[in-house]
## 1
Amino acid sequence: MMNNDIGQNMLKSNTSIVGIVCKDGVVIGADRRTTAGSIVMNKSKQKIRKINDYLVASYTGGVADLELTNKVIAAELRLKELKTKSRPTVEEAANLLGMIIYRNIRTPTMIPSIVGTLIGGIDENGKASLYTIEPAGAAMEVEDYDANFSSGMPYILGFLERAYKKDLAVKEGIELAKECIKSSTQRDVGSGNGIDVYSITKEGIKHVVSEEIVAEYK
């Protein structure tokens, strides 16, 4: 039953997110459109969120669910840091977020929380990594690329099957992420209006692309 619920919701998320692993870091990209059914509600929504100085996440799912998820994971990581007096690793953050999502969807409610996440970050040793957390709560490290369960996923993964090359540099990954979002917005009606791309390297987290997609009428 749960698999059916996730299957019915995963391509109704109406968004496009992508994470790409590079030889010198990680790149995360997303579009800006939010919808309610067939209506475009917002054309400038930032779907990539900086959790703290070393973690960034991009979400797919209901707006209320993802807003709450982002606040909870930021607070929980801060509490963990204060208790242990050490900074959580990217792996620890991903598994904590997976546990939160796993617990949420198994709490009896009339409206289950369905959120998919790509989370990237940099550990204290300078290693950047990317994790995908499926809507059921499983957290898995990404070795090449992923689009989680966004509605643009089929178009993004199809594009990356031929365009992705192992050991590409972050600079190349940024351009590839832009092309991924452009490709999905051409076919996925739930995605569009803008592109944001973040890079995650030992130099830190940077918002490297912020572009509006404007319709041209001829």
Note: Residues 5-11 have pLDDT under 50 and may be disordered.
## 2
Amino acid sequence: MILASGAGSLAEALIEAAAQPPYPARVVALGADRPAEALERARRHSIATFTVFPNDFPGRQEWNLGLAAAVRAFAPDLVVSAGFMRILGKPFLDRFEGMTINTHPALLPAFPGAHGVRDALAAGVSVTGCTIHEVDQGVDTGPILAQREVPVQQGDTEASLHERIKEVERAMLISTVAAIADGAIQLRGRPGHTYQEVPQ
């Protein structure tokens, strides 16, 4: 199960990988919080879609409950937040914590939040990257599962740097989900260990 809010390039990369045997996972649905290109990408691959609009609910807690109900209908083994631009709160995580992961365009714990790429550029770092982590009730604070570095190039803009990060992020997401499905990465609350991939 994938959650996305925007263009959906990460989601489509995972959908395409999952359609190729012997990839060990399949995508059962894609959910969004708004009209998004990601929904159209999923439909082109005959993936079920749904949208849970925040404005249809009186508050954040109720929206989280609505999202949890929509996700639960597909009985996923894993929820992948891939460019999903809303914080998953306690009512959602009461059901799905320990089986929800998130992609983030920075090397956490550096530059958490919605503007990781912009914040890395503003800080003047020479290297940033991307992270996949478990989702907990903080903001980008869950256990790190995988990280890859991306050098910052002279003259980079937020858009150019983010595009290079997304190229790396797509490959990392595909390999991380496969490792979870194969049991090489064990999420919190499940037996085994947690694997952290940090390139040299």
Note: The radius of gyration is 16 Å.
## 3
Amino acid sequence: MTNDNSISLNKFISQTGICSRREADKWIDAGKVKINGVVAQKGNRVGENDQVTVNGKPLKNKPKQVYIALHKPPGITCTTDLKDRTNIIDFINYPQRIFPIGRLDKPSTGLILLTNDGDIVNDILRVENNHEKEYLVTVNRPITPQFIKRMSNGIPILGTKTKRCVVERRGKMGFKIILTQGLNRQIRRMCEFLDYKVVTLKRVRIMNIRLGDLRVGKWRYLTAEEFKLLSASLKK
């Protein structure tokens, strides 16, 4: 029995911290989820007295939600696949199950967020929300005004054209770029199109969260103020 306080099944599952809503939908489609012993379907709702099981195991109470900022070193892979010896989960070695929000290429460094809150993952990664991510990049030859102009106005990669973005020169061979997209290896591909090769790529900001002076390989919890601003921007 559900009631007026019921919530959607995929949200209920994601709020336990075991996966995102999208992953929960896959489990539901695969028949792995039951409500009170009955195989669940997409669109089902869950009330406070309902028992939900995944693969026959009752879901545990929702753990305290954690939000972590990590300064990812080069060589670490943003995957939860523990078969990958360079996976980010083993590297951070947090006592609760957490997962990265988005990814950074293995050779790239800088800010990556990790959490056990499946809802916030979807909200941050949703393309249409146009959330800013800021990077500092160095390349293998001097930056020209033409390079800045073309990078800013969009580059044809992966069968599309990148969105207009903010690009500023930083030194002879460096630049800052602020993206609202997250195409696969986007900055590297954009540079390659213009016959430049990325030497270093470091993410220094995701929305209102800044890397600051966090040392390579270290992590910290988001502050209450950071989370408040982040949550407010996700509701817009």
Note: The chain is about 25% helix and 30% strand.
## 4
Amino acid sequence: MVAWVAICWRSSEAREESRMSFDSTKALRSATGRAKSDVANKLVSMFLHEVSRRACLAGGMTVSNPDYLRAVVDAFGHRCIYCGRDLEHDRAAVEHLDGMNRFRVGLHVPGNVAVSCRRCNNEKRRDDQKPCLTLAGSGWESFLSHDGSRCSVNCKTCTYWSAIWPDESEKLMTLHEACDRIRLLRKSFGRFVSWSELARPAIQHRVEGLYRACQDFATGEIDKLTSELNFDFSALKVTD
């Protein structure tokens, strides 16, 4: 009974700490200016998915192919590909090792798709959203390279890994093993991985053009349509 009370108390304390660490004002500020970027990023994703569809068609294999599904399970089991913790159906995410965004230009092809926990998926976005990586050449390698030896003391990803594995030797060993498992999976589907790497410069050039064009189009169309509405905003003015 005492142990159960202690567990409940720790769980309640953790929830309270989580609530205290969340900044509602920061979330509201970031959401305000995101609309045009969301539209552009969606078009980038659609473009990358179409390139992926054509690559899979040419290669005769998709991510849903039974052979690929079996390879992923054989490599990682039903555990997160990064932290190795057991996955839960409502806390798992389809993970693109090279992120499907305008910086990493990853594709939805065999060798680049697996399953991670949502926490690792969210944490990895810090690396995926960087225009230039300093720890490694890809998002997944950079994410697993945050071992505390090359980052500032304020690095959130290093802090994340240290929170999962407080023991330094266990942390380094687990990060290294995760890299090895991912490399083996990618090696098994090397023709897709190699083709993606060769095609990346050309794809990225077009992705950047698409992103900028979408931003310009969205800005112009939104301004045009809102002007045509010709609303009377006088009732919203502050009066004494």
Note: The radius of gyration is 22 Å.
